[in-house]
Design a protein that fits this description.
single chain, alpha/beta, 2 domains, about 25% strand
Length: about 260
């Protein structure tokens, strides 16, 4: 369970890998309280953009699905200035240009996020559920732990992050997620039979609003209904899951490349 009091007391909050559009209302309320009470800067980092959050964050950093390990290393390079020889050697070896290009997150965006942190005294990185589904989660947590150890940012998560291991591995090749991709997030209050998509996603998938669809991947298949949501600004569709393991979308990494087939009525 995330300690919401820490969020409420923060004056700089970096949300990484936690989808917050029309879900996780308690987290959103706590962050909004921090904005009101502490004039908190909110840096929202995610692969899915939504107009529903445009008044929520002070900066949005959009990255490619699957690139969370690269994004973690960019945060390390940005926020850690004095560190151990081992971690510094890792930072010096980072190919920042490659990581930035492949994750579609500009170096200048991280510089802006760092500048927003100056003068702030209670700085928090909210580490979201997405991170723990990534196949490189162990290395990502090593990177994030180094950020907490060697900067003034504190980690906050629903799961324990306690690693002193500084044997950080090289960032694995960042491969693109081609085609149609669905992001699955856990929310027991939402209708798990609906895939919400932007108009551009609908055009790419060649499926109209309110169509019944079949999603297929090498992990399985499932029937859903597609609803076009004008607040979504991403070519990634979203689908709530009420329980982990209920279908292939809710198993493993939360971004799924899928084939979409329109079903006849």
């Amino acid at each position: 369970m995330i300690d919401l009091d820490i969020l409420r007391k923060s004056d700089y909050i970096l949300c990484f890998g936690q989808f917050l559009a029309n879900t996780n209302e308690q987290i959103v309320e706590a962050i909004n309280e921090a904005k009101k009470s502490n004039n908190a800067e909110v840096i929202y980092m995610h692969a899915v953009d939504s107009l529903a959050l445009k008044d929520f964050y002070t900066q949005f950093i959009k990255y490619e699905a699957g690139s969370e390990e690269g994004i973690s290393s960019l945060l390390l390079d940005t926020f850690v200035k004095n560190t151990s020889e081992k971690v510094q050697a890792y930072i010096d070896d980072l190919d920042i240009g490659y990581i930035s290009a492949e994750s579609s997150a500009g170096e200048e965006e991280f510089e802006e996020a760092f500048e927003k942190s100056l003068g702030k005294t209670n700085k928090t990185i909210l580490v979201g559920e997405d991170i723990f589904s990534h196949k490189r989660v162990d290395n990502i947590l090593k990177i994030l732990s180094a950020i907490e150890k060697y900067s003034d940012l504190k980690l906050l998560s629903s799961m324990p992050i306690d690693t002193q291991d500084e044997n950080i591995e090289e960032v694995e090749e960042l491969l693109p997620f081609n085609g149609t991709v669905v992001y699955s997030y856990l929310d027991s209050s939402k209708d798990s039979n609906i895939v919400y998509a932007s108009a551009s996603f609908s055009r790419i998938a060649k499926v109209e609003d309110k169509a019944n669809i079949k999603l297929t991947s090498n992990e399985g298949e499932v029937l859903k209904k597609l609803i076009v949501d004008d607040t979504l600004q991403s070519t990634i569709a979203i689908c709530a899951t009420n329980k982990k393991g209920s279908d292939f979308l809710s198993c493993g990494y939360i971004y799924k490349p899928v084939k979409i087939e329109r079903l006849e009525e």
